[in-house]
Amino acid sequence: MIRRILNSRLPLMVYTPVKVFDAGYFHDIYAAGALPVLDTEFLTHEEVLQRALQLAGERLSFGIRLFSHDRELIGKIKQQQMINLDLIICPLSKSDTPADFSHFSDTKIVLEIKDIHINDKIKTISPHALVLRGNEAGGKVSKYSSFILMQWYLKNTDYPVFIHGGVGKYTAAGMFSAGVSGFVMDSQLLMADEAPVSKNFKTFLGMLDESDSTDITYNGYDIYRVFANLGTKIVKDLKIKAVELGADPDGKEKLYDLISTHMTAFDSEEAQFIQSLFYLGQDGVFAKDFVKDSTRLGDIISGFFKTIGENLNFIDSHDPVKPDSPFAKDQGTRFPLIQGPMANISDSSEFANKILERGALPFFAVGSLPESLADKMLKDGSENVPVFGAGLVGIEAFNPMVKKHLDMVKKYKAPMPFLPAGFPPRQRNWKKPEPKPICIPHRYP
Length: 445
Known about the structure:
Elements: E1 12-15, H1 23-31, E2 35-39, H2 45-56, E3 62-65, H3 71-80, E4 85-92, E5 108-113, H4 119-125, E6 129-133, E7 139-141, H5 146-156, E8 161-164, H6 171-178, E9 182-185, H7 199-205, E10 213-218, E11 222-227, H8 233-244, H9 251-262, H10 287-290, H11 297-317, H12 326-331, H13 349-357, E12 363-367, H14 371-384, E13 389-392, H15 402-411, E14 416-419, E15 438-439
Parallel strand pairs: 1-2, 1-9, 2-3, 3-4, 4-5, 5-6, 6-8, 8-9, 12-13, 13-14, 14-15
Antiparallel strand pairs: 7-11, 10-11
């Protein structure tokens, strides 16, 4: 459910880096239109209260994010009755006993959720909103992706939801169109001028790609997403330790103690980050894209929402399920929809015709089939299905038959070969009205 929750100009929360505190960064975030949130992980109760009370004296609204369902700390924060504390974010899991969040004055209660099927516990607290922390985020995360959590909670609850994990310039528009109320960002913004991190860290972050994030998992449930390169020894050691501690009754706590001990702060000038332990989500790679046009935090956040608006407008002008769209007309179907090739399912003309009758383009699953089977399938399609496509494996190392498959596509006039990977040079010689290939690169540029 889309609803205004935050006491900020924009529906965005920005978590400050763990082990780093800079009141100026809170002001920068708030001035940019977002709500700054103090991430209290690795802090003692005294440190949390000290920093929160300092922020309570500043002319801004802020939030506090707790690492665990810490009933004692919740009580201590409640006692302070901080007027400008807009919200408190508290994790809630299947094993937690819900705390008492009554008498928090005007402070909103937001639950950080990583599980599904815990609606009864959520209802006990009756929060103002949920933060869904997906597997793509940094730190302790869900086994589910943000999009899976989003779909589940939008369908099964009426609470406003904020997405943490996988939030980028283009994914955000899809999240908004699905019905979320806002977003959480952290490492995506750490290359901004105002970010309280070292110059070395900013340089390092700008060199990372999507493969530089991994997880340390304890017994399949406690998952910590961190930075890791092939040579990052500390992460390799912790992965091994997580397995060794699997049978230990106190293994969960021991592993987290090790993570806490080795966690590196982003403002360190001396750290060799390639050999350091620090939280980094898969969305951390977006940081270098966010600073392409400007390195000022205000410009970055403004540009982020401008891009969202532009992409939401595209949805209106290019409705993906609008009948007789230009793409639908081009492929000869009623809707601009493609049925993905499915081995042992989409290999018959009968099934293909049912897909076509309902308005989508059917695809035969050619894959890496032997020549005789592929030829029989495509011949059957050409004789019995008016419009169809052929799903191929486009990398010769994985499909030695790819060249013969492409010849069959031309022979039987399959209008659209679908290539999940690879780009065979032979496509360059295809002329109208011969096949129009759809290619999906196996790696993002």
